[in-house]
Amino acid sequence: MNPKDAAVQNNPDTTLVTQTAPIATATHGGRAKCLQRLVRLELPVPRTVALSFSTVEAIASGDLPDVDHIVDQFPTDALLCVRPSSQDPDWGGPGAVLNIGMNDARFEMFSNTMGEEAAAAIYTRFIQSYAINVVRLDPDMFDEVEGEGKVALDETIAAYEQETEEKFPQSRRTQLRAVLLSMARAWNGTSARLLRQAKGAPADAGLGLVVQQMVFGLGAGHCGSGVLQLVNSDTGAPQVTGRYLSQSQGRDALEGGSGSMFLTSDPRGPALEDVLPEAFETLKDHATLMRRRLRAEMVMEFAIEDGAVHILDGMRVSRSSRAAVRIAVTLAQDGVISREEALMRVQPGLLTELLHRQIDATARRDVIGFGIAASPGAATGRLVFDSAEAQASAARGEACILVRRETSSEDVRGMHAANAVLTERGGITSHAAVIGRGIGLPCVVGASNIIFSQRDKTITAADGRVFREGDELTVDGSTGQILAGAAKMQEAALDDYFRTLMQWATDCADIKVRANADTPADARTARNFNAEGIGLCRTEHMFFDQGRLTVMREMIFADTSDGRRAVLERLLPMQREDFTQLFRIMKDQPVCIRLFDPPLHEFLPMDASGQRELAEALDLPRSDVTRRIEAMREYNPMLGLRGVRLGITVPEIYEMQARAIFEATVDAAAEGITVVPEIMIPLVSARREVELVQAAIEAVAAAVRLERGAPVEYRLGVMVETPRAALRAGEIAPYCSFLSFGTNDLTQMAYGLSRDDAGRFMSDYVRQGVFDEDPFHTLDHDGVGELLKLGAERGRLSQPGITLSVCGEHGGNPESIGFCRAAGFDYVSCSPFRVPVAILASAQLAIADKIS
Ligand code: PEP
Ligand code: MG
Hints:
By secondary structure, this protein is of the alpha/beta class. Strands 11-21-20-13-14-15-16-12 form an 8-stranded mixed beta sheet. Helix 17 (412-417) links the parallel strand 14 and strand 15 (420-423). The chain starts with a helix and ends with a helix.
């Protein structure tokens, strides 16, 4: 070992990067560690010294290490560069400073060896970068510098000396000290801190620095620099990508100047492959070795000096979500990493981007307002202000954005017809949000900085711009932004790589994932995404279909039980067909059907013209209709006569539904499909409710058995969505085969916070740290979670082996899935488009457990 090496080899503060030096990402940062890996691969990496986090922290407070020790590691004439090395490259860091050590004497020397032009370029660049980044002078001060070569250099020196009233420092040691000090202090600046914290860095994230010997991409012979990677960053497809610029340093080649070359032969212009074929092959070989041995797709920064290749740096290739999936799958298929590792490398949230159209990352955004990003994906369309208009628009083949104050069951058909939904009110589990996610419709809710006027059919942006019916807008449900006009889109990418990854995830996941699916289309999506059954079919949506709504209203207006039964008789065949279709699509997988849940008034028209039409259809005086509707109206529609309360006070609806389910089961059996339907009772709060509904359902089952001469099996369960049901799970469970926690309503009731109004102040609450997160989005482990645990524990105790699940929106949230898995739940159920995210998250939890 070179004696100079020994001086710093075992010095944890300033460590020469050798194959065996004590360098770790956690102490010296990702860049330093990566350089060491490249050294271990015996790649031509220039000599480098790594400074640890603690050293840099000490430097920031003025306590510098022995800079002579660092400088002594390098040949006397060598120029140096310093780059940041944070633990995670995404956390950024101060910009690199190149050519440290440049001074008048070296300028003379380099003028002789590489020519005055190149030497002047290096010196000029260094002085300017030093002035701006280290001495923190105003960049404008060099605006006057004109010309090139020596002329530009002289002007730069003059400008520097005039501004600082000092000569430009000539000692490499002095320059390096100043650079280290300024980079260490920049890391502690407020904006740098906020920026990295926004990317997930902890408050005490450290910065390492690497001091590296410069390789000149300038001078005599073939010299230049560039970057190279083996995949396309957008698609992840194999493709040698990058740029090379002759006579350049750093990342100049990427700046898109006229001289930069393609790497592989290209009809558009000169390429490194043609100009320097040997160097190109060497670079490709090095990149291939890096991919295999560092087990990742890397981008390498290189320099060519007099024809010889040097690798200055290596980083993970930046990638789109689509590329992330393809890269992970391909690395596993090539045997570079295991399938488990591939699964761990894709963030579940990224899949959401793949499943929906997105605004292209490079598109210009004319943002006019924002709300809560309630259902991902983006769409452009013309504004419409009611569901009928949305349907008319769809019939004309025109894309539209449905704008509502908030949506209700009445709007579901309009939502199906629209390309996106925007609402003034609402939160992450409001009606528009839940339906939007269910059908994969981009949706922004609670856009409180926009003024909505349903009457004038306008929305007014905070900057005063007014948009009317027919105007074009883009809704970005992934970010919550509303944009004026159309934006460039990127299509969903459900390619073979996505499917492969999902198959691997399904094989690893150990908590089942079902889908909340109400329609045949939802069920098909769910199956397509490997859902293991339907965990929640909200049957009320089925009654809003054309032809059914009027019958439903007739039923509501019938005065007697017999009258209601007679009307429901007409709905029965339709409802039976709904269930038969679901059973056919789901084949032999479980289907959990929730009995009717909403309050009846949701099915009645609230506007005058709707009430007039209804009076005509029912042949009743208009005043009768209006009076009955008024009487039925509930001010808080969540907590009145709905769910099981309706099932007990108006039993005919549940009886009709139970009959439809059983008859569909018998029909499906005749087609060779074995289903044991799961029937779920919503909004239970007392044992007696379950007892009554169970008796009614069993009576229907017995009748169907007798009538059809066929066995009818079913599983009865309770939706635990009131705090009381969770607390009394011990006495409810003996009636049940399963308990499914409806965490949307449970959260609402545990907090006493309306899910439709939460959006109004949620961001304030999260910003001020009252809530860590929106509890409708991520399960509140402490409060709602405690109810879940209590309910599960008490339910299990009185009914061992009872199936436990979550079917609220939290079922699709990776963090909440972790909670359910740890609490021993059997499955989670979420919107069909969140199923892939949930499966990947549950696979990652299983793998993480296996590793630890
Ligand atoms: C719930 O309350 O968690 C639930 C799944 O039901 P809904 O969203 O239909 O009220
Ligand atoms: Mg509910």
